[in-house]
Structure formats: C-alpha cells, structure tokens
C-alpha cells in the first residue's frame, strides 16, 4: 500500500508534458478584462500602455503563468528582434567583458541577445553546432566573437542572415567585421619598449598560424616585424599550444635567455601569459623588471593597474558598441548594405613590469 501511495504522489508531482502550451494570450486578456491586442502591445513593449492597464495585464500574467512562444511570434511576423551571439569561453576576461557590453548594446537598440558560448579549447565542430542552433531559432542577426570557424564556412552558414564578426581581423568580401587592429596595437608595445632603451628582445608566440591561436600569432608576428624594422635584435620562442608543457617550456627558454644575458625584455601575446611568466620568473629567482622587463596584451584582467602590468588595453567597449550598431542597421534595413571592415586601436598602459634599461 505504501508503494502505491508513493507512486500516486510521484504522478501528482510530475510536470505536465504540455505545460508550455496550456495558457494562451486570450486567457490573459480574459483574466485582465482587456483585448488580446492590448496584451500583445504590452508584451512587445513598443507602444505605450496606460499604467492601470499594465498593472492588470501583469497581474493576469502572474496568475495564469503565461509565457509567450517567442519562436511562434517571430515566425508569424516574418521578422525577429533577436540577435544570436556565438562567443568563446566567457571565463576569459576579454570575452566576459565583451558579452556584458553586447548585452548593454542590445538593450539600447531594443534587441534581445541569445547567446551560445563555446567551451574552453578550440573545437570547430562545437562552434559549428552552436551556430546552427542559433540559426534554428530564426534570429534576425548573428554576431560571431570566436575565431575557430573558417571565413568561407561562416559565410555559407549566414548568407541569408545579417552577420558581424567581432575581434578577429577578417577581410572576407561577404562578412561585416569590427576587428582589433593588431598591427597598430603591436606598434604601441614596440614603441614603449624601444623608448626605454631595450634592443635585445625575446618575443614568445605561436609561430604556426592556426585558427585557435590566430590572434596571438598575429600579435607575435607584428611585434617581431616592427622590432626588426626598427633595428632591434629579436629572438623568437615558439609557443605552439596552450598546453601546460608548451607554456612551461616557453618560460624555461626565456629564463635561460635572461640568465645568459642575451635579452633585456620579453614580450608576451596576452596578459595571462605574462602573469604565468612572472610566477615562473619569481620561482627561478629572476627579477622583473630589474633582470628583464616584460609586457603583455589585453589590459582587461581585474586589478591590472595594481599588478603593474605593462600592456595594451583593448577597446572592448567600443568593439561591442560598434558591432551592435552595425547589426542593428543591417536588421532594420530593407536593402542589402555594403560590407564593412572596420578596426579599432587600443591604448598602451605603462606598468612596473617595463622599466628603462640601465647602461651596462
């Protein structure tokens, strides 16, 4: 008997399979004693509704538990005010701040942001799946803030949906892009390092260009090129992946170069890589900046100024704002707009990790 009662209780507590579809907009209108059109206007938020009416509709929604089927609404209208965002791991400060700023931008333009976040690591299949999921939701536009999907493949996915690629340099003829100017940002670092008298410099970066580390490859390539064009003596150390073994190998090679007095400055392609080196240097008895100066890239870690990192601060806020402006223009335009390729330059943040090289 006890088992029967438990089974009955379990059935009573079970969530109905059709719970999403039971309450309609007409039910809400009937409960609030208003028209269905009034409920629709209230939910859209585009046309003002008198406060007493708003209160009645809100109370009716709470009482009935109504949740609008937005997918069906978009399908009926043939339009969408939802922007799909494909973004890399938000645990990274750059992507976390970018996501927050895009949320603010969407609200300013009265758009909704639907986000699919790619997990840590670089897996094109995962990102392709995420992009498909966004397109299945019939979003009105796509923002792509990850660099793993190849441009031609991305273009084929979104040829019928307004799209903006954020962050990565891209000159594809059918893709709008707002990128970070890695050439100019690298020049900011090089100018600061040379101005402090350094001529023997090591640059660490992934020397092989593959999609997962494209940005860091570009940064390292342009740091090296700018330095050599200025007549500096440059040694490069390859960091082929983000594995602990490769990063530790990079640290050992840089520390050996410092001990052999072959370099006075070490340039890293991210602040996280710079922080990792600072820890390794401390454990090895290498002083920064007394024995070697060091610089990073990003300028977005919490407490960057307190840490004293010499770095380039990326204009993430401007990147998000401009990207949202373009996607909004594309979504409201009846005609196809010209493809835009725009880039933004960061700003150099001086820090204690970069010091003037004293004469020997």
CATH class of the largest domain: Alpha Beta
Q: Write the H/E string, N to C.
A: HHHHHEHEHEHEEHEHEHEHEHEHEE
* Largest sheet composition: 6 strands, parallel
Alpha carbon gyration radius: 27 Å
Mean pLDDT: 86
Going by CATH, the homologous superfamily of the largest domain would be Response regulator
Residues in helix, %: 40-55%
| Shape estimate | elongated
Low-confidence stretches: 5-12, 15-20
- Count of DSSP strands: 12
Number of domains: 3
Order of strands side by side in the largest beta sheet? 2-1-3-4-5-11
What is the CATH architecture annotation of the largest domain?
A: 3-Layer(aba) Sandwich
- Terminal residue distance: 92 Å
- The fold-level CATH name of the largest domain is Rossmann fold
Roughly what fraction of the amino acids lie in strands? 15-25%
Provide a count of the helices. 14
Helix-and-strand structural type: alpha/beta
Write the layout of secondary structure elements.
Blueprint: H1 2-13, H2 25-32, H3 36-44, H4 51-64, H5 70-77, E1 82-87, H6 93-108, E2 112-117, H7 124-136, E3 141-145, H8 151-157, E4 163-167, E5 176-180, H9 182-195, E6 200-205, H10 214-229, E7 233-238, H11 244-259, E8 265-267, H12 271-283, E9 293-295, H13 304-307, E10 311-313, H14 316-332, E11 341-344, E12 347-349
Parallel strand pairs: 1-2, 1-3, 3-4, 4-5, 5-11, 6-7, 6-8, 8-9
Antiparallel strand pairs: 10-12
